[in-house]
Design goal:
Helices cover 19% and strands 22% of the residues. It has a four-stranded mixed β-sheet with strand order 7-1-2-12, with helices on one face. The relative contact order is 0.20. The structure holds S-adenosylmethionine. The site of S-adenosylmethionine has 13 residues, from loops.
Length: 192
């Protein structure tokens, strides 16, 4: 196995407002592949806007024929995606739920439609839910029954399991509509 990239997932605000230390605003992610000479990387599926080309329209005069810089690029290894907040439609009751946008980039980059994706620590089953949205298959493993219930609802769309009603978290207002965010600067490999 080889590590291809050390990625930083940077987010907007820490869950806990630290007063006596510098609060965390990132999580590290390792992009690993089994064989560095043979792996899936769908660069076209995850390209983001390249500010130089798309906004500033600068010309690269180092080329034999000066041409405008390209308007899209593969993201670098610092990714910005907002954390999941209570007001977001995707919010579930779990202390470390990952945003769908983060998993969206990882899954698009490293798998094909119909690929099988394993998430051994499923939590709220974000990985399984996004895999399904993107036409992938998934196996998710989770030790806590409460979170398995979330997964059954989120991935299979079940509304009841073993006599228990599987409802999304109750909210006293309309959640913000879901945004598809694959365009920020900051997920055949594995990400840890
Ligand atoms: C960091 S959370 C995963 C969050 C998930 N990516 C999401 O978006 O919701 C890790 C999860 O792994 C589960 N877990 C911890 N140890 C486990 C084990 N040995 N087997 C299965 N699940 C485990 C925990 O209950 C927890 O829900």
């Amino acid at each position: 196995m080889a590590i291809l990239s050390r990625i930083i997932w940077h987010y907007d605000s820490s869950g806990l407002q630290a007063k006596k230390y510098f609060g965390s605003l990132y999580e590290p992610i390792l992009h690993c592949v089994k064989d560095p000479k043979n792996y899936v990387f769908n660069s076209d599926s995850i390209k983001v806007e390249a500010k130089t080309g798309a906004k500033r329209k600068l010309i690269d005069y180092r080329k034999a024929v000066p041409t405008q810089y390209s308007s899209t690029k593969v993201p670098g290894n610092v990714w910005y995606f907002p954390r999941v907040r209570y007001r977001m439609a995707e919010y579930e009751n779990h202390p470390s739920q990952k945003p769908e946008s983060l998993l969206n980039r990882m899954i698009l980059a490293s798998s094909h439609e119909g690929s099988l994706i394993l998430d051994p620590f499923a939590g709220t089953f974000t990985c399984g839910a996004v895999a399904k949205q993107l036409g992938r298959l998934s196996i998710s493993i989770e030790s806590q029954d409460t979170y398995v219930d979330i997964g059954l609802r989120r991935v299979f769309g079940w509304s009841e399991y073993k006599g228990k009603i599987l409802s999304p978290p109750a909210k006293n207002y309309q959640p913000k509509p879901k945004k598809t965010n694959n365009n920020s600067e900051f997920i055949q490999g594995s990400f840890f």
